[in-house]
């Protein structure tokens, strides 16, 4: 019990003083009767009005962090590049079914738009001609099945899938430097300042998204290595 309440001994002493104040000749039986009535009143008061328990404090949380789920394909574990040319988990059947389901909805128009308006599209080209470069590089024509778009997300690219007699293929030319960026250009005289730099090109691909059931196709941009260029500076002796 809190210290602000009187002890039982203090209550009894107060009652004795009160009775003797008004009835100096009160008998012991009268005192006992009064004490019994007071004790019963105290018991009833305690049982009928228990001390309230402290209110439960609920923890206050701040706004929940927004964790965006980033799906990385299995093929990305076997390459350091931003695209996959082979993928054992590529959803070819699902893409084929979606192409047939949405053929009338304009997916073919999307595909034709990629071929017609993307300057770096090289549909039908798969061989290299003899070329001479000022900086050593590797050039190839690729048909990626997965790639990282300009937003940094892995996307599924519609490639090597046939539907209604149309084979959907999307090819891009890539060129990567074989030297450390900043190295002097090999065919430029040493009297000129020069260095090799990796340049990129933006390419559009028709992509497939299984989470968009209404229309799972869209055109998205991808950043691919476009050339290993030589930058020539001032002449010096």
Automatic annotation (TrEMBL):
* Keyword Membrane carried by entry: no
Segment forming the signal sequence: 1-48
Q: Which Pfam families match?
A: Spaetzle
Which PANTHER family does the entry mention? NEUROTROPHIN 1-RELATED
Keyword Cell division found: no
Protein name, as recorded: Spaetzle domain-containing protein
What InterPro entries does this protein's entry cite?
Cystine-knot_cytokine, Spaetzle, Spz/Toll_ligand-like
């Amino acid at each position: 019990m809190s210290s602000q309440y009187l002890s039982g001994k203090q209550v009894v002493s107060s009652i004795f003083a009160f009775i003797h104040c008004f009835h100096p000749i009160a008998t012991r039986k009268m005192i006992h009767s009064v004490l019994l009535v007071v004790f019963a009143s105290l018991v009833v008061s305690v049982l009928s009005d228990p001390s309230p328990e402290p209110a439960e404090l609920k923890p206050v949380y701040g706004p929940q962090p927004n964790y965006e789920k980033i799906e990385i394909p299995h093929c990305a574990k076997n390459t350091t590049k931003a695209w996959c040319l082979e993928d054992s988990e590529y959803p070819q059947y699902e893409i084929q079914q979606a192409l047939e389901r949405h053929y009338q909805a304009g997916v073919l128009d999307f595909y034709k738009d990629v071929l017609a308006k993307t300057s770096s599209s090289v549909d039908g080209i798969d061989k290299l001609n003899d070329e001479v470069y000022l900086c050593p590089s590797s050039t190839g024509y690729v048909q990626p099945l997965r790639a990282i778009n300009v937003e940094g997300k892995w996307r599924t690219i519609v490639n090597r899938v046939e539907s209604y007699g149309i084979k959907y293929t999307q090819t891009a030319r890539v060129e990567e430097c074989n030297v450390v960026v900043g190295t002097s250009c090999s065919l430029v005289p040493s009297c000129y300042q020069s260095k090799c730099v990796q340049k990129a090109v933006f390419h559009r691909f028709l992509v497939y998204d299984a989470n968009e059931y209404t229309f799972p196709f869209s055109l998205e941009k991808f950043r691919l290595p476009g050339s290993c260029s030589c930058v020539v500076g001032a002449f010096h002796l």
